[in-house]
Specification:
Layout lengths: L8 E5 L9 H6 L3 E5 L2 H10 L4 E5 L13 H11 L4 E6 L4 H8 L6 E4 L4 H14 L2
Parallel strand pairs: 1-2, 1-3, 3-4, 4-5
Helix pairs in contact: 2-3
Length: 133
């Protein structure tokens, strides 16, 4: 029998929240969920751990000078520490075009608009699992 420690790791980065805790869904999908509450903590976590999948919120911030969103720092860290990790993004529909700009430089395996629908998330996780086989 496979233990939870043998399961692929899913890093959930919940900065703003406003949606249910999907930890039980992640476990049902076969992942061992880990959660951090800031991009800075995620960067630190990535130095010690290697996720198979990352679920992060996309936040556009016009005040950022060298990047467009919180996601670019995460993606750069993933390229360095976990280049095979897949990324799912939770996003406000009005920022989709900004995510498209990020996707020209980084691979995003799926994006779900707020409010996050649990069945859509579950279907996306199943699709990602099938692609990995």
């Amino acid at each position: 029998m496979k233990s939870q420690m043998d399961s692929p790791v899913l890093l959930s980065i919940v900065e703003m929240g406003g949606y249910p805790d999907f930890s039980s869904l992640y476990r049902r999908a076969g992942y061992r969920p880990e959660k951090v509450h800031s991009m800075r903590k995620a960067q630190s976590w990535l130095k010690r751990n290697r996720p198979d999948l990352v679920v992060a919120e996309f936040h556009f911030d016009p005040e950022l000078r060298d990047r467009m969103s919180n996601l670019e720092s995460l993606m750069a860290g993933l390229q360095r520490f976990a280049p095979d990790a897949k990324v799912v993004v939770f996003i406000d529909r009005m920022h989709r075009s900004r995510l498209d700009s990020v996707k020209t430089r980084y691979t995003v395996h799926g994006a779900l608009d707020y409010p996050i629908d649990e069945s859509s998330l579950e279907a996306l996780l199943e699709t990602i699992a099938k692609e990995g086989k």
